[in-house]
Amino acid sequence: MKQLTLQTERMLAHVEDGVGWITFNQPEKRNAVSYDMWLAIPEIISSFTADDDVRVVVMKGAGDRAFVSGADISEFEDKRGSADAVATYGEASGAANAALRSLEKPLIAMIRGYCIGGGLGIALAADLRVSAEDGQFAIPAAKLGLGYGYSGVKELVNIVGPSFAKEIFFTARRFNAQEAKDMGLVNRVVPVADLESTTQELAGLIAGNAPLTVKAARAAINEASKDPAQRDIANVDAMVAQCFASQDYIEGRRAFMEKRKPQFAGR
Predict the structure, then answer these.
(1) Which of 112, 117, 105 is nearest to 129 (CA)?
(2) Closest to 180 in 3D by CA, of 188, 171, 170, 172
(3) Of 76, 110, 68, which Cα lies nearest the Cα of 201?
(4) Structure confidence at residue 229 (pLDDT)
(5) Angle between helix 35-50 and helix 83-102 axes, rounded to 10 deg
(6) Residue 265: what are its φ and ψ, rounded to 5°?
């Protein structure tokens, strides 16, 4: 296991068996994200991007009460008390969310308990979301007078559609895990006792597949969710061509013929 050394103890990161693990580590505040945690996220993503041992990344919250319950409101007076402070804070949170979305490796959110506000925004950055039965989801902006920008709203619409997105924003209520699954907000709902093993199994399946193929498929799916004028189909085509020119394609064919598990190298 490789442990990353970070500037804050409120974020943890390590690599094990092809999986990069990100832990939001402020359980006494239900893993509410503080300024230093926002700053640590791009650092973690940069490290995992550069590490060929990392095939898939999983995000989780420390403890048993929350994935992420939102931003750390106790910092707002100091960190968001003036226009300049709001801008600085926004740059940090924006850079963190951009880093999560820029990751070209599959990203899974493993969700227990509260997944609220900014925490749901973080979960939406993941490619897959697995929730325990105690998961609770909400965007309480309408109860706080906050405004949500277009990009955050569009991300939610891409996943659940406009009707459910309106219900989530307009009511600002909490949705349980089954409701979240019914609207497509999460991929799976499992018993609390099975959450980690289910997520590890899912991550292991992905990690064992051809990285270039997974990367190309992820890129194509993400391009499909963009406005047509913004789609980079040429880049997807180039990634597909790279798959067919790779050693992994040779290995996959040989393994199939030899009836053995392929050993993919990502090249």
Answers:
(1) 112
(2) 188
(3) 110
(4) 93
(5) 30
(6) -115, -10
